[in-house]
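Hi there,

I know you've been waiting on this one. I reran it after we fixed the sequence typo, so this is the corrected version. Both the input and the resulting structure follow.
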Amino acid sequence: MHKLIMNEWIKIFKRPGTFVMIGLLILSVLATGVLTKMYGNHPKTDHTQWEQQVSQEIKQDQKQISELPPTAVNVKKNLERKAAVNQYRLDHKIPPVNGTTGWTFINDSSGLISFAGLFTIIIAAGIVASEFGWGTVKLLLIRPIKRYKILFSKYMTVILFDLFMLAVLFVSAAVLGFALFGTGDGNNVHLAYSNGTVVEQNMLLYLIKTYLLTSIDVIMITTMAFMISAVFRNSSLAVGLSIFLLLMGGTVTSLIASRYDWAKYILFANTDLTQYFDGVPLVEGMTAGFSIVMLLIYFFVFQLLAFGIFTKRDVAA
């Protein structure tokens, strides 16, 4: 199996486009760092009066919460989260981060995970469909290897490529962030809000967890793109539909969730597991266990379609 995966890995890196993808990702991190250094690296609070400013923010948030209509549930929850974190800062004498640091830059760069995901989707959409397009699928299937092993090796290669791009993003953001902004005041603690309480977390562990949990969205859409590639043998359809869902799926789901509880069964309501460890659930009553079960259901449906059709398809024509 590892030889099949290695063969697929070599195929990917023989393409010049792969290095263009990596270069564009690093260039995006570099551009973000330069722009932040030039225009956005300003202190957020006066550290000599931070307690007074944080107290004022708490009062403003509480006032806004009391004025919100009953339908603004998500806005209210986010304001309650912000107020709880600020109150914890006051109670435990933990000042807010003053300006941009290497740690905050890594955290902000997590927004580029979706950008990295676009490249993974392109790989996933073409890794099977291209074999049919080039006619090389017959050369694969005449080998004394089970079809499911061939398809599984391709899927594992896609997941490894996604993790590779995630590592490139994290490392490049860390190197550039600490080079441009330093480590700050040495207070490497993140205040997370979970189940109505505030907890302290190590910043490095928090960032690693954030990157991994945020990438679940990309992995699920990549799995869907892989399924479309295997079922329909059309990379354009897989890329177009997957990118559309990556960009719009979460937004549309949030709008539905603001009015209907059944939105919790939609895939994109469950891909953001960070909502259970540092935030508030999209729909009241949702739990981490529920989201994991829903993700597994969608995952197995995608894989059942991909492997079921690929292993039974007649490619003689």
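Quick highlight: Residues 179 and 248 are 34 Å apart (CA to CA).

Best,
R. S.
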